[in-house]
Write a structure and sequence with these properties.
Layout: H1 30-33, E1 37-39, E2 46-52, E3 76-82, E4 85-92, H2 112-121, H3 126-143, E5 145-147, E6 153-156, H4 157-160, H5 182-198, E7 207-212, H6 214-222, H7 224-230, E8 247-250, E9 253-257, E10 275-280, E11 286-288, E12 291-298
Parallel strand pairs: 1-11, 4-12, 7-9
Antiparallel strand pairs: 2-3, 5-6, 7-10, 8-9
């Protein structure tokens, strides 16, 4: 329907709205979709994590009738942590709705319920702000360093548990003359290290997953060793196709080109030339406990 505004246009002319463009930013949700974080609702502002280091040891043979060696009792440890709150609100004033044309229409006024739903559950609404915040925390959790929106540190998990951050592994992907099987050997080293560190948490279904920055992904997928595995197979046609933000398996690791926010700075960055490794299908390896709140205020002012 054409609109008419005699106060701003010629009273005898009509104008038509041909299209409405709503620019929507990309919302990263990949870590949430992997299902590696187990929700753990809490009713207290602080939580405690108790640990006990179990030990398996060989039993020394002894003479029959001799007293057996005593089993050593494991030591227990407990650490306290504060939960975090995620809260954000919005306010709708009457002046924002009165006599205002609804977006994408030519003659309809804005409606309160429609605007409430847009601000709450729309593409840029409060719920998606919450989801982006949670993805940022998940991304920080698999790197051991959870950061807030302003870049400050919420918690350093390495420091909290008194363990050292693992040494960075150089895959040497820019080597013009790599040794045969060099990348596969690096993969095996990482898988073995993670399996040993996980101890009994590792199950036959557990697998290593790697999120790759763009530069690391491009160098990895262009590497001669990786390309060679596709030649003379039915997957060879994939070499002709684009593989941006795709997933493939090699060396016992699931590799994925992770897509974060398009500005690359809103959430904890991976690093364009880095890859982060974490276990998938490892029961209770990741727990999610936080206080969540959101509000929308409607004002008659």
């Amino acid at each position: 329907m054409a609109t008419l505004d005699i106060f701003k246009n010629d009273a005898f002319k009509m104008t038509s709205l041909s299209a409405a463009i709503d620019n929507v930013p990309y919302l990263p949700q990949r870590l949430g979709s992997l299902g590696i974080f187990t929700p753990r609702p809490e009713r207290t502002e602080s939580i405690a994590i108790e640990s006990r280091d179990g030990v398996l040891s060989l039993i020394q043979t002894s003479q029959r009738g001799a007293p057996p060696a005593n089993r050593a009792t494991e030591k227990r440890n407990i650490k306290d942590f504060r939960t975090t709150r995620i809260a954000k609100q919005d306010r709708i004033n009457a002046s924002e709705l009165a006599f205002i044309r609804a977006f994408g229409t030519e003659s309809e006024f804005m409606q309160v319920q429609a605007e409430i739903m847009r601000r709450l559950a729309g593409p840029t609404g409060l719920l998606n702000d919450v989801e982006l915040t949670l993805e940022n925390m998940r991304l920080g959790a698999i790197q051991g360093l959870v950061k807030d929106a302003d870049g400050s540190t919420i918690i350093d998990w390495f420091d909290a548990f008194g363990i050292s951050a693992p040494t960075e592994v150089d895959f040497d992907l820019d080597n013009a003359s790599p040794a045969s099987g060099a990348v596969r050997k690096k993969c095996s080293d990482i898988v073995r290290t993670m399996m040993k560190a996980a101890k009994g948490v590792w199950t036959p279904a557990t697998r290593v997953h790697a999120l790759c920055g763009d530069a690391f992904w491009d160098d990895l997928t262009a590497h001669a060793e990786i390309r060679q595995t596709y030649l003379n197979t039915q997957e060879a046609s994939g070499l002709r196709d684009g593989n941006t933000y795709e997933v493939f398996n090699y060396g016992g690791i699931t590799w994925e080109n992770y897509r974060g926010t398009d500005d690359g700075t809103t959430e904890v960055p991976l690093g364009t030339d880095k890859a982060k490794f974490f276990p998938v299908n490892a029961p209770r390896a990741f727990l999610k406990s936080s206080v969540l709140a959101k509000a929308l205020i409607i004002s008659a002012n």
